Automatic annotation (TrEMBL):
Entry similarity comment: Belongs to the formin homology family.
UniProt-listed GO biological process terms: cell migration; cortical actin cytoskeleton organization; regulation of cell shape
Protein name (database record): Formin-like protein 1
Gene this protein is translated from: FMNL
Coiled coil spans: none
């Protein structure tokens, strides 16, 4: 649908195209391309209408700076390494020993979690055809968040248009409760026609006479 064979196959679209759906409008400027897609999905692919229920915590994810989080983890790691080297020189220090014993496992888990988060983010960004090195989480997740809000609003507007169309159609089909009074000239014309019809329904005058002057009597 997006390309003809002359220009080559279209395997997808950039995520920025989701924002452009709101900019493409019909000739009367009343509906956008997103409104049209909402109608097509509702009529042809109703199983896709609840797609946004599969996406969770978009707003929260968009507010996280992954680079800052990973930077904080590396800083903690360097601090723990310094503490370990200090303990090597002072292996009889009970405070350092207890600190390393309590926090080393936590640091190891934090490192593993940060690596998992980074790999998961890079994987999902590449899945949608974007570059994880140039696409930040705030940019990536905000695209989906904006699209879902616009999609829900378009759904509401399409539903409202349907209700208005049904109400307008019902109002056009309903007969008027009271007829508008006819103009005075129209009433006079109808009265005249009724009078003529009434006179035509009277029995004709029949004269059966052989005498002269019968025609004069009829005329009279």
């Amino acid at each position: 649908y997006m390309n003809s064979s002359k220009r080559g196959a279209a395997y997808g679209f950039r995520l920025q195209s989701l924002d452009v759906l709101l900019e493409m409008k019909s000739t009367d400027r009343k509906q956008t391309l997103l409104h049209y897609l909402v109608k097509v999905i509702a009529e042809k692919y109703p199983q896709l209408t609840g797609f946004h229920s599969d996406l969770h915590f978009l707003d929260k994810a968009g507010s996280v700076s992954l680079d800052s989080v990973l930077g904080d983890v590396r800083s903690l790691q360097r601090g723990l390494e310094l503490t370990q080297r200090e303990f090597v020189r002072q292996d009889d220090c009970t405070v350092l020993k207890e600190f390393l014993k309590a926090n080393s496992p936590t640091m190891d888990k934090l490192l593993a979690d940060s690596k998992t988060a980074q790999e998961a983010y890079e994987s999902v960004v590449e899945y949608f055809g974007e570059n994880p090195k140039t696409t930040s989480p705030s940019m990536f997740f905000s695209l989906f968040s904006r699209f879902i809000k616009a999609y829900k609003k378009a759904e509401q507007e399409v539903e409202q248009w349907k209700k208005e169309a049904v109400a307008q159609e019902a109002g056009a089909d309903a007969p008027s409760k009271e007829e508008a009074p006819a103009p005075k000239a129209r009433r006079q014309q109808m009265d005249l026609i009724s009078e003529l019809k009434r006179k035509q329904q009277k029995e004709p005058l029949i004269y059966e006479s052989d005498r002269d002057g019968a025609i004069e009597d009829i005329i009279t």
